[in-house]
């Protein structure tokens, strides 16, 4: 195999990245090259992808962005546009180039027994730091399954498959992985006949009854006779005493659907904390059409869904670290090429770059759509029973109609704009669109004072911003300004604030059932505090509007909470209260402390306490001497 040459006079930046020690760096590269000896261009793309992703992580800690290495590797191409390479040959070539780069790097290094390179120390100090990477941490020291395992057997499926919490003899040697696979199969496919069990665990060749019975006996002795009773006629099945991280994950996600804001967030974190890697890894068979494939696909979908939901909640609340953590859990199940791209965005997000959150979320949404498109035949749906009311903190998805929509309830967004826009312009143009939608007919003096407060700007600055916004949103929605009408969008451009007010209008004088439904539709739009997570110095014009929107949300939540309490609908009341509390100003958040503490243990008391807290907030905002400040990240 031919490889691209790498210059021999490379400066070796040992102080950069997480591989800071020279010996560790050299060892890591040599291990990668050694591991590649078992691979060829004809190896399965998945194996090549995992190896190449590891190599790119190491290289990113060594090579600055403008290095020749990245021109050779082109990590954004060679099969990285989708979770599954469009061409195995293209990806194999990308793998080969990566191996060639590593071999070129290691060529001028000292032999393996030397720990220091033969380089002048003054040259090593000239390298500049490269981009960091986000690496999700696994809680090996505080495994969330350990508490469950203390009460009985728990099967780990969201990562390397294993069985915890058993008290019988541990299977040894090559039988262990097969017994773990049997436990996973029985837990996910209980009650199947013995023929189905045989075909799943021994798909390549038929086996005799003695082999199957020996395996079942090993599993029964390990897990316990009382938890795995003998009933081959009715199929193999565990008792309810045996659970799994997958069962717990689904339960936490269900809890999130019925819990108000803070509780929903916590339930999603508890679910995602269980994820330790791609589902069902380390099973003996990696057949993409094997029995586990539909289940692992469904698990991956629900993990990405939960991560997206929590990331959106955190971004709406201005919690960039929490949003990055949620994305990191999804990164654990993301295919290798996309995981590298996602890790870069999450690193930028933790560094305070708000725009990286939108990029990371878009990447996960693309992955989610691809997972749907590649769903294996027989894949079970990721079952998350919906509540009587929608999930708190999650706005109804905007219509896919052509007209753009501005979202104010949470992080301010312009959705539905399909024109070209540079990532460095999104923040400023989003504020421009938000202001213009709320202040139609603005003159250029109004725009200058709002968007560039305290600055004297030239007309070409404003005109350039206007031109970029027009291209992004579409000229059909943003016509040229007129001397009579000023700057304005067409009426087709709407917002969640417009929709919220329309639902409130519909609720007035409507029969009880219709009014309650209209209030619910209004509160479904709430993702967080109005104008949450804006960058420092931005949206200075929005303080009064943030106050008015928060007050309207809390008023509607107060109304719907009391209606549902009167009807005896405790879960519905908690949902309505949770939506209202999402808009709670930080200065008044201490009023809901008792609600946050009591809800998990006494839902009825918590619902009544929430109604009381909302009443206080309603009165406070109605007579507030100070406006609600636009929420900005700390």
UniProtKB/TrEMBL annotation:
Coiled coil: none annotated. Residues 376-399 are annotated as: Disordered. One of its GO terms (molecular function) is DNA binding. Residues 244-368, 495-612 form the Bacterial transcriptional activator domain. Keywords: Transcription, Transcription regulation, Two-component regulatory system. InterPro entries: AfsR-DnrI-RedD_regulator, BTAD, TPR-like_helical_dom_sf. This is Bacterial transcriptional activator domain-containing protein. The lineage of its organism: Bacteria, Bacillati, Actinomycetota, Actinomycetes, Kitasatosporales.
